[in-house]
Amino acid sequence: MDPFLLTLETPRLRIRPLRPTDLADFHAYRADPAVTRYQGFDVFSREQAAAFIAQQLPLEFGQPGQWVQYGIESQRTGRLIGDCAVQLQQRDARMAEIGITIAPAAQRQGYAREVLQALLNFLFNLPDFHRVVETVDAENAASIALLESLGFRLEGEFRDNIFFKGQWGSERQYAMLRREWEA
């Protein structure tokens, strides 16, 4: 597959490449300890947020092994309310891992579900695409409930497999196959 700039639209959201003009919104939620609690990253300084966005600018969807982060923009306000990431697996680009971060003010409004459904629709409509994985903190009840409600299957729990933010943590891996999405 040739790399390309990915943009997806839902009734309320636009999933699109991050832009330098996203810095204020991006930094505001990425600097919030409540947002980073279950994430594989810690709070961002403004400089780290700017560097992260700059690093993402040249990236395109379709490069196996490369995480590409996308802004989640409210179509109503034009403001960034979160971000999501997609990584086609290096060993087989018919499989991907995804992740979603939603700003606190936008949580509990169905945005994560909307983004996840858009990503699944996009990925499972790629020719021969087979599998999507998401790894979540074992204590992240909201994300676990969302994945399970959409039909993701728990494939494993990794106990105390990551030392992060000064303590050991456990993760769960969920996956969905194309045939499960189509059922």
Automatic annotation (TrEMBL):
Gene3D superfamilies assigned: 3.40.630.30
Domain N-acetyltransferase: from-to ranges: 13-179
Keyword entries, A-Z: Transferase
InterPro entries found in the cross-reference section: Acyl_CoA_acyltransferase, GNAT_dom, N-acetyltransferase
Tagged with keyword Transferase: yes
Domain of life from the UniProt record: Bacteria
Recorded GO MF terms: acyltransferase activity, transferring groups other than amino-acyl groups
PROSITE patterns per record: GNAT (PS51186)
Protein name according to UniProt: Protein N-acetyltransferase, RimJ/RimL family
Native species: Hymenobacter psychrophilus
Lineage start: Bacteria, Pseudomonadati, Bacteroidota, Cytophagia, Cytophagales
